[in-house]
Amino acid sequence: MNDSPDKDPAHENSLVSKAQVHVPPAEAVLAVDSTASLERIAEAAGLTRVTIHRRFSSRQALIDALSARLNEQYLLALKQARAETAPPAVALHRLTEIIFELKISHRFTMDLNSDSLTGRPLLSRQAADGLDALFARLFTAGAITSADPAWGRQLYLTLLCEVGGLPEDAPSLNGAANDPSDKAGARTDLLVSTVIGALGGRNSRDTAQ
C-alpha cells in the first residue's frame, strides 16, 4: 500500500521548477506562521506581488509546489545515501541523517505532508518503493530478520516521527551517540539502532562496520 496517491510526473516537475528559488524564504515564513499570505512570502523572498502571482496563481499553488519539491528531496536523499549500492546499514544511517536535516529545513512542508493520525511522512510511490528496496537489501544482507520491507518502512517512518519529536534533553538521546552534544547525530543513531533492533537485527553500529 502506498503512503500517498500517484501524481502526474510532468505536473510535479513543473511545480518543482517553480518552487526552486522560493523554497528557503517560503519555508522560513510558513514554519513560523503557517497561515502567512502569498504577499508575505513574496516580501520575504524579495519579490514583488506581481512577480510571485505570475509564478503562482494562489497560495495553495505555492504550497503544492513546495510539496512536490519535498518529494524530489526524498528521492534525492535515497540517491545521496546510495540506497541501491552502499552497504545497506550505512545507507540507512546516511538516509536518516539527510531526512533529519530536511525536518529542519522543510519543517512546514514535512508537517503538511504527514499522516494526520500517525504523523508518518506521506511518500510518493517512487519514494516508498526506494525505501522498501533498502529494507529488502537489509534483509538480504542479514542485517535484519524481518522479510517484509513494507513493514520495515512503516516502522521506520513511525519511529522517525517519534524520535524527531523528542526534546533535546531526552535521556535516550544522551546515550545514543558517541558525542552527546551532537543531537542530530544522536537522533540518527537512536532511530537506526532502534529500527534495526526491532526488525530482529544487531545494533546498527555493528552492522555498519
Features:
mainly alpha; elongated; disordered C terminus
How does this structure look, described?
By secondary structure, the chain is mainly alpha-helical. It is 66% helix and 0% strand. The protein has helices at 9-19, 23-32, 38-45, 49-55, 59-80, 88-105, 107-112, 125-140, 149-164, 171-174, 183-198, 204-207. The chain is elongated. The two termini are 33 Å apart. The model is unreliable at 9-21 and 204-209 (pLDDT under 50).
Q: Which helices and strands appear, and what pairs or packs with what?
A:
Elements: H1 9-19, H2 23-32, H3 38-45, H4 49-55, H5 59-80, H6 88-105, H7 107-112, H8 125-140, H9 149-164, H10 171-174, H11 183-198, H12 204-207
Helix pairs in contact: 1-5, 2-3, 3-4, 5-6, 5-8, 6-8, 6-11, 8-9, 9-11
In a nutshell, what does this entry contain?
The chain is mainly α. Helices cover 66% and strands 0% of the residues. It has helices at 9-19, 23-32, 38-45, 49-55, 59-80, 88-105, 107-112, 125-140, 149-164, 171-174, 183-198, 204-207.
